[in-house]
Amino acid sequence: MATLSASFSANSNNTTRFSVQINPTRSSSSPVRLICSAAHNQVSTNESSCCLKGLKTFTCGVLAVWAVTAASPVIAANQRLPPLSTDPDRCERAFTGNTIGQANGVYDKPIDLRFCDYTNEKTKMKGKSLAAALMSGAKFDGADMSEVVMSKAFAAGASFKGTDFTNAVLDRVNFEKADLQGAIFKNTVLSGSTFDKANLKDAVFEDTIIGYIDLQKLCNNTTISPDGRAELGCR
């Protein structure tokens, strides 16, 4: 539990202290519980009591916003990926994919492809739906992943050197620290995907479909070649 507080003094004899307590909960829908309170050592008139109520509402609101903002990064940092699947055929799931809810990352079967090796796979993954797939540490070097649908996939640290993503939909994919050197994003949708510290050297972005805000973030990646920056329209 953490507490944020602020004190206000109208005069030397009248001081009010406001506080917001942050209590973690077990509920995923409401990860923190806020308790706002006020304490004062003297209120002499009805007018000051009225003003105190208004000040309490305003101050507790400000402190609550501050509390939630401060707590959110901690909650996100504590999130963990599920344990590695023990399914002996988990790597083969990439060849069948999952079939429902692609747009929202909802799936009928979980796909755990972590640390699997699909190097130079040219036929079995084309056009597959890999919604919410876990791909960190996997190798897709030289693979043909054209027309795949990857919605909310987690591909941080994966290797996609020379991977062909032509006509693919890469929606809200996390490519943090992934190796995408020479990857082909021809006519590829890159909506909401992140490439923090990813290697995009010699990646091809011909006719890539990407929003303005996502483009600005992508253009901050210094590994993109001059040709790639020109194709994207980076300034």
TrEMBL record:
User: Can you tell which superkingdom this protein's organism belongs to?
Assistant: Eukaryota
Which terms are listed as keywords in the entry? Repeat
Pfam families, per the entry: Pentapeptide
InterPro entries assigned to the protein according to its UniProt record, in alphabetical order: 5peptide_repeat
The membrane spanning regions, by residue number, are: none
The name on file for this protein is Thylakoid lumenal 17.4 kDa protein, chloroplastic
Query: Which species does the entry assign this protein to?
Result: Kalanchoe fedtschenkoi (Lavender scallops)
Q: What is the lineage of its organism?
A: Eukaryota, Viridiplantae, Streptophyta, Embryophyta, Tracheophyta
